[in-house]
Design brief:
471 residues, mainly alpha, Ammonium transporter fold, two-stranded antiparallel ribbon, 21 helices, 2 strands, 1% strand, disordered C terminus, NH4_transpt_AmtB-like_dom, Ammonium_transpt, membrane
């Protein structure tokens, strides 16, 4: 078949393009996208009270769509474009055809693939923040919060840590797949935003049972399986390191879930399904900054720690520390993401294997990327302690940026719009906010109204307990 006159043979498949890498990267990005839509949409919509199911699910769905428009409009270039500051790129549109078809900054991929892959990471970060705000945030305020936070907070940490020109990347910070950029950021930002938005209604805060635990598990399952793309896609190639990252991810997660489960049984006497789900999440989060740079035995140890330390902060310290008790963090994102994410980052600095780091970062600089454990073993003690120092510096940077910028955004927004729903809306929930309900089924405590519940046979009244017609 003849080529169109304006198309060169190498434009569709240039020499630098790896078809295998590109296929996997697009697949990995889609897996990460499915963690959000439908994964977290289902999880949020089912883990809350029935009256908040629609609102909670829709906060996630809206964020996914809004982030994409902002991402291609200016966010991607601010995160991975020409330097404006050592911690931020220059805003620019990322939809020019010539740019989209060029090779990206790392790997054998076109820019279009990298934009898509990095978008799903940005989107899930905002959706995780939403988890701290479920059950009371004004949806219109959320609509404005999403683009503002993406623009002024996410881009800074992303450029600094993920992009090769970022100052923390150059310093040698280990963040394999977003323990800092996604999870520590969302945990701190969610907790900070929850402080400014205020708590749920008193009756909701005291009792907030899931409306559907089976659906919650379905959403959690999508989250877990989607993490294969989350951590397996960050080498930007089909590599042995990607395979290791995927296996380590699932091993750590399973260990963390079981650890949390055993602690629940030991201290509370019952195996909690919600608790096991929390343990699953903390395992996924903890391994993320280290997934492809630690050995399997280290992933198991990290799973044990991610199933116990966040459990302790959530079940014990949360009741003793004033600021934790004061802030209404609906999904406990501070514990499951901020604590677990910082824990994973610090453990990455301890367990990172020099050889695996060189495979991932494609560098032979021995003074970078040496976990403290291997620094002690090989005699490079100074390099090991330096790596730990860099990891702690990364935690401090991400926490500071997110507390300050998230606070500024919330204070700015509340000048124009209430951050929290009013008391009447808090009591009603979905129907007051969206005019829709998740489960519009007759028999949910309401009296039968024949004018509303017509039968499929077109009869005006057909009571549910009416006798069946004789044949």
């Amino acid at each position: 078949m003849a080529l169109p006159l304006n198309l060169q043979p190498d434009e569709a498949s240039p020499d630098w393009l790896s078809k295998g890498d590109n296929a996997w990267q697009l697949t990995a990005a889609t897996l990460v996208g499915m963690q959000s839509v439908p994964g977290l949409v289902i999880l949020y919509g089912s883990i809350v009270k029935k009256k908040w199911a629609v609102n909670s699910a829709f906060m996630a769905l809206y964020a996914f769509a809004a982030v994409l428009v902002c991402w291609v409009g200016w966010g991607y270039q601010m995160s991975f474009g020409d330097q404006l500051f050592p911690f931020l790129g220059r805003p620019n549109v990322a939809m020019d055809q010539a740019f989209l078809l060029k090779r990206t900054f790392s790997g054998f991929l076109p820019n279009a693939t990298m934009i898509y892959f990095q978008f799903v990471f940005a989107a899930i970060t905002l959706i995780l923040i939403a988890g701290a705000l479920l059950g009371r945030m004004n949806f219109h305020a959320w609509m404005l919060f999403v683009p503002l936070w993406l623009t002024f907070s996410y881009t800074i940490t992303c450029y600094s840590i993920f992009y090769p020109n970022g100052w923390l990347y150059k310093m040698g910070l280990i963040d394999y797949s977003g323990g800092y950029v996604i999870h520590l950021s969302s945990g701190v930002a969610g907790f900070t935003a929850a402080y400014w938005v205020g708590p749920r209604a008193t009756n909701d805060r005291e009792r907030f049972p899931p409306n559907n635990i089976l659906l919650m598990l379905a959403g959690a399952g999508l989250l877990w399986m989607g993490w294969s793309g989350f951590n397996g896609g960050d080498p930007y190639m089909v590599s042995t390191d990607a395979s290791l990252a995927v296996l380590n991810t699932h091993v750590c997660t399973a260990t963390s879930l079981l650890t949390w489960l055993l602690l629940d049984i030991a201290f509370f006497g019952k195996p909690s399904v919600i608790g096991a789900t929390q343990g699953m999440i903390t395992g996924l989060v903890c391994i993320t900054p280290a997934a492809g740079v630690v050995q399997g035995w280290a992933a198991i140890i990290m799973g044990m720690m991610s199933g116990s330390i966040p459990w302790y902060t959530m079940m014990v310290l949360h009741k003793k520390i004033g600021i934790l008790k004061q802030v209404d963090d609906t999904m406990a994102v501070f514990h499951t993401h901020a604590v677990a994410g910082s824990l994973g980052g610090i453990l990455a600095g301890f367990f990172a294997h020099p050889k695996l780091c060189r495979i991932f970062y494609l560098t032979d600089k021995w003074e970078h990327y040496i976990g403290l454990a291997y620094g002690l073993q090989s005699g490079h003690v100074g390099a090991g302690f330096k790596q730990m120092g860099i990891q702690f510096l990364g935690v401090a940077f991400v926490v500071t940026v997110n507390v300050i910028i998230t606070s500024i955004i919330c204070l700015f927004l509340r000048l124009f719009i209430p951050l929290r729903l009013n008391d009447d809306e808090l009591q009603v929930g979905d129907d007051a906010i969206h005019g829709e309900e998740a489960y519009a089924l007759w028999g949910d405590g309401e009296k039968y109204d024949g004018s509303k519940h017509n039968s499929v046979y077109g009869m005006e009244e057909f009571p549910m307990n009416a006798p069946k017609a004789e044949a």
